[in-house]
Amino acid sequence: MKNYFSLFIFLLILSGCTNPAGRTWMIPVTIDPADLDYSPSSMESFEERRSQLIDSLGNSFVILRSASQCSANRHEFRPNNYFYYLTGYADRGSYAILSQDPNQSYCLSAPPQNMRMQIYDGKVLDVQEIMEKYRPDRTVSYREVRALIDSIVKTGANIYMDRSDRTFLRDLQEMAGEEGSTQFKHIGKLVDELRVIKEPMEVEYMQKACNITAMALTNVMKECKAAMYEFEMEAVIEGTFLEYGSAMPGFNSIVGSGPNSTTLHYEPNKRLMEDGDLLLMDVGAEYGYYTADITRTIPVNGKFSSEQRSIYQLVLEAQKAAIEQMIPDHMFTDANDTVTAVINRGLTELGLITDPESDWQVSFYTLHGTSHFLGMDVHDVGRYHERELEPGMVITIEPGIYFREKALEQAQEMFKKDADSTEIAEFVEQIRPVYEQYINIGVRIEDDILVTTGGNINLSRYAPKEIEDIEQIMR
Ligand code: GLY
Ligand code: MN
Ligand code: MN
Predict the structure, then answer these.
(1) For the chain, counts of helices (H) and of strands (E)
(2) How far, in Å, are 289, 346, 446 from residue 328 at the CA level?
(3) Is 398's C-beta closer than 6 angstroms to any atom of ligand 1?
(4) In terms of Cα–Cα distance, which of 307, 242, 285 is closest to 443?
(5) Packed helices 43-55 and 127-134: angle between N→C axes, nearest 10 degrees
(6) What does the alpha-carbon distance between residue 206 and residue 374 come to, in Å, rounded to a whole number?
(7) Which three-class secondary structure string do you get for 298-345?
(8) pLDDT, tens digit, for every residue of 397-425?
(9) Distance separating alpha carbons of residues 363 and 457, to the nearest angstrom
């Protein structure tokens, strides 16, 4: 028994799953893509969403299609978010029509059934299978659906459709003809508020997306060293996504080292990393069409310099303080207010802000807002402003501080609406000697927070972010 216990500890140490402080890096993620399989019980959620939507439709119709933007040989198929959110159905080339007409309140079109497509793309569901699995009131064939849509458009009734599917609007307008009185409205007006509050099934997918992403970031911490390329780290990240059943990232991976850590949406990911660089990774696996959005910043050589450490600690302190605020009845904007206050104080102490009352001086370093909703879209739908937090919302908390090489030269242009040129010039000259010590340091730390009745849960909690933990894993 004793021997087995020693062997277990030895194997844990060998596998990098534990550190001397006794903290484990066991991330609870398994390869079980069966959790993405069709299940009859999950159809109840989609049915409930449709029923809420149909109640608010009046005489209007909803027309959606599964996707249009599948460019041949470049991207894997993925259904449009509104279509999937309301149907749970993900075959390409399908249409959904919703209305208050009791005979056809939910009509789904079957995808083309021809043999040639089956030879290339595999079997698709036939009409009978679609009726049984997805429970529309009626199904129309791919050939019939165009005529049906055409007849609805020609009635002049208002139509809710997905305006983010841009070619679809053009197609529908063509059907309506020049004289058509149809107004095409965005489906988001009716659905976005439903999407803001996540159901348990959605949270489960987001938790798994976060766990896979946490595993990917931890794997980079184990692999990263100087003289490797950013894209090698991207390969570790996206390879881990695939390894755990995430078909694709929820957005383009941002993997920026050294100066690139200060470019907010840097995507080329092709620089050779150097000793002394920071590496900022803003990445997210998608799972069940829900995405994670996690940022971690690590020292390429495994040890933060004193300048990197002081900025990192400040961003981390601001982030933790903001996460504490993300509880019901607090405001969405409390996160940004908290981050701004903490960073303002910290940068003033470091001699990088000369007037703590000035909003623009903090913005000089922080550059972007702190939060957005997260879900099927990385910047998910829903109204952000003047909004109280409610259980079921998932929001990111992502403060950052950036020391861009050109920032001192660009300060006049950036803040000409906020301050006069003398004030900006004095600021630049006063901070310059300190600023120069920090150039090319970009730190962002981003977690995904589920607001709950009693407080909140950090869905990305398994991605290490304490300095000692990161340095320990990288050792
Ligand atoms: N990954 C984009 C963002 O954090 O908003
Ligand atoms: Mn992000
Ligand atoms: Mn984000």
Answers:
(1) 16, 16
(2) 26, 28, 20
(3) yes
(4) 307
(5) 80
(6) 9
(7) EECCCCCCHHHHHHHHHHHHHHHHHHHHCCCCCECCHHHHHHHHHHHH
(8) 999 999 999 999 999 999 999 999 999 99
(9) 28
Pairing outcome for strands 61-65 and 159-161? parallel
Q: Mutation test of ligand 1: which of 281, 282, 291, 394 has the most ligand atoms closer than 8 Å to its C-beta? A: 282
pTM: 0.92
- Three-state SS at 232: helix
**How far is the C-alpha of 180 from the C-alpha of 173, rounded, in Å?**
8
CATH topology assigned to domain 31-194: Creatine Amidinohydrolase; Chain A, domain 1 (3.40.350)
Domain with CATH 3.90.230.10 in the chain: 197-473
* Digit-coded pLDDT (tens) for 29-80: 888 878 888 999 889 999 999 999 999 999 999 999 998 655 566 678 899 9
Q: Determine the distance separating the centroid of ligand 3 and the alpha carbon of 183, expressed in angstroms.
A: 34
Which residue's CA lies nearest to atom 3 of ligand 1? 293
**Would you state the CATH architecture of domain 197-473?**
Alpha-Beta Complex (3.90)
One DSSP character per residue, 356-421 reads TT-HHHHHHHH-S-S--B-SSSSS--S--TT-B--TT-EEEE--EEE--TTHHHHHHHHTTTTS-H
Other residues' Cβ atoms within 10 Å of the Cβ of residue 374: 28
114 φ, ψ (degrees, to nearest 5):
-70, 155
In the chain, which residues fall in CATH 3.40.350.10? 31-194
Ligand 1 pocket, 377 CB below 6 A? no
Structure tokens at 400: 């950052």
User: Tokens at residue 158, please?
Assistant: 């208002």
